Amino acid sequence: MKTRHLLALAAALAAGWFAAAPGRAAGDPRVNCKNPETTYEMTVCAGRDLTAADTAMNALYKQLYGRYDAANRKLLQAAQRSWIKFRDDECDYETALTIGGTIHSTMVTNCDTELTLERIKRLKAQAACEEGDMGCNHP
User: Fold this and answer.
1) What residues contact residue 56 under an 8 Å CB cut-off, 6+ apart?
2) What is d(CA 32, CA 119) in angstroms, rounded to the nearest whole number?
3) Which of 116, 114, 132, 112 is nearest to 124 (CA)?
4) Do residues 39 and 15 touch, judged by C-beta distance below 8 A?
5) Cβ neighbours of residue 68 under 8 Å, at least 6 residues apart?
6) Is 120 a member of any domain?
7) Cα–Cα distance measured from residue 86 to residue 58, given in angstroms and rounded to the nearest whole number
8) Residue % of the chain over a pLDDT of 70
9) Which tens digits make up the pLDDT trace of 6-56?
10) Rounded to a whole number, what is the distance in angstroms from the first to the last CA of the chain?
11) Who's near 75: CB < 8 A, 6+ residues apart?
12) Cβ–Cβ under 8 Å, residues 6 and 66
């Protein structure tokens, strides 16, 4: 019984390390992302893509936040926090079959990137909202 618990703990610790790997590995200048071949290269490239998407999303968020009044800032902040939880939960769900595999962290990062790019589209639409348009929240 103790062996099962130790194996489970070791697997959890390893999964945590691999989940953190894309962010650390993204800065590896030796990796050319035009044609990644190894799991490590895929992880590095996925990390780079997520970093770029996250940077773009954060810039849009800050732009909107700066243009809103206090009430809308609070709404935007709550929406963003809820969206982050949704993204994390959705990617956990979508990548559940890869848990324990070496590709898992890359799959999670790819999912995070895909959903972040979708969020960017929504934030861009809000940023471009014109006064009088009832389909969005004009800053």
Assistant:
1) 120
2) 27
3) 116
4) no
5) 76, 137, 139
6) yes
7) 17
8) 81
9) 333 333 333 343 444 444 455 677 888 999 989 999 999 999 999 999 999
10) 59
11) 137
12) no
Domain contains 134: no
What is the Cα 84 distance to its own chain's centre? 8
Q: Classify residue 122: in a domain, yes or no.
A: yes
Residue 95 tokens read as 């990548």
Burial class of 45 by CB neighbour count within 10 A (0 to 12, 13 to 18, 19+): buried
Sign of CA dihedral 56, 57, 63, 66: negative
Domain that holds residue 73: 2-127
Place of tokens 């968020």: 61
138 in Cβ contact with 129 (< 8 Å):
yes
Query: What's the structural domain count of the chain?
Result: 1
Structure tokens, 126? 């809000």
- The predicted-structure confidence for 66-100, as pLDDT tens digits, reads as follows 999 999 999 999 999 999 999 999 999 999 999 99
| Alpha-carbon gap, residue 42 to 104, rounded angstroms | 11
Residue whose token pair is 């489970």 = 8
> What is the residue whose two structure tokens read 């590709």?
103
